[in-house]
Specification:
By secondary structure, the chain is α+β, with helices and mostly antiparallel strands. The chain has 11 helices and 28 strands.
Length: 428
Amino acid sequence: MAEQVSSLKTGIKYKNTPIGKIPVDWEVARFKNIATAFYNGGTPDTTNKDYWNGGIPWITGADFENQKVKTIRKYITPDGVKNSATNVIPKGNLLIVTRTGVGKLAIAPFDIAISQDITGVILDSQKASLEFIYWYLDFISSKLKATIQGTSINGLLRTDLEEIDLPLPIVAEQKIIAEILTTVDEAIEKTAQIIEKTKEAKKGLMQKLLTRGIDHKKFKKTEVGEIPIEWEMVRLGDLCNGQPEYGANVPSIDMDKSLPRYIRITDVKEDGKLLKSTWQSIKREFAEPYILKEGDFLFARSGATVGKTYLYRNKDGECAFAGYMIRFKPKPMQLLPDFLFQYTHSNFYYNWVKGMLRAGAQPNINAQEYSNIPVPRPLINEQKKIAEILSFVDEKIEKETKHQEQLESLKKGLMQVLLTGRIRVNVL
């Protein structure tokens, strides 16, 4: 991509068009004028077994993910194609969701049959680059969604799809623009794969470290499975100072960095990190009893996020916690907060939470119930080693996640300037 990006140029003259300003040497083309065919989809009779479980992949709008066809859930037979309104779209052509998920699209990864949710489009390669049109439709996907909002029509009409105006540089320039965006997109996908593989590796590592420990030979059976014979199973409440505490029941106020941040259930992500986008503050006169200190541990007690946990660190700044959170203070010489944090992201903990929720009518776990969580307790030095190993993996995941976010931001910015001609590429 470096060679392509280095060829970007500015100093462009523009003209006004129905789709905004574009370079003077670009055209505006109607979708129908750069396509050779539009194909509707359909669903074979679901009661006829002869039409299903064949060798032809068949998709609906639900099978699109991140502007790609990811998983094929259903297959049909040639008779299913012949006796229904579906069409098989050849590999390497556009698939556009025009009902139930307008704004989704993909390039067919192989010959694929489509439901009535989808329109297949065959482009004239002499007039338009498939990948360029794909990226432009992705760029305006929110506008496509907006065209059906507030109407009684459950979808994008074929006539409206055909009449979409598209910016059209020469095909050679279209291809270079598409190559740049595809290169960034592939980097995003590779990074996402690294993140998923690292998360999977961590699950296996947690299973091993939290049951087998480090360099143990003898084990005993417990309620969380076999653990080293030297370990103890202890109630969480016995490993913490004082009684668990419920948070403040006062309203939040808009973000004011001169005041403590107000930590609510909705501020904590599944990985235990704080969201930046939901920052709210609490008035200082209400905050004092609820100010968090290094190592304080919060559990979400109610609602859809019950069971979620957050470990406070001084680097998060001055914070107080809200009423739907419960604070525990681990005893420093008995339970490391970092070890507890890792434990509450393990399958053992998740299974405990599920068991508690099945037992009650409402999604709620109170302070007494949290106090009774069974915790496998190694000696402090081993707790530290286990927490350090798992934290190292977390850092790897966080680093890759930030890299992915940077690539997403880069892609968004490149789409904005390349697909509108605000920055041009040299065509040799």
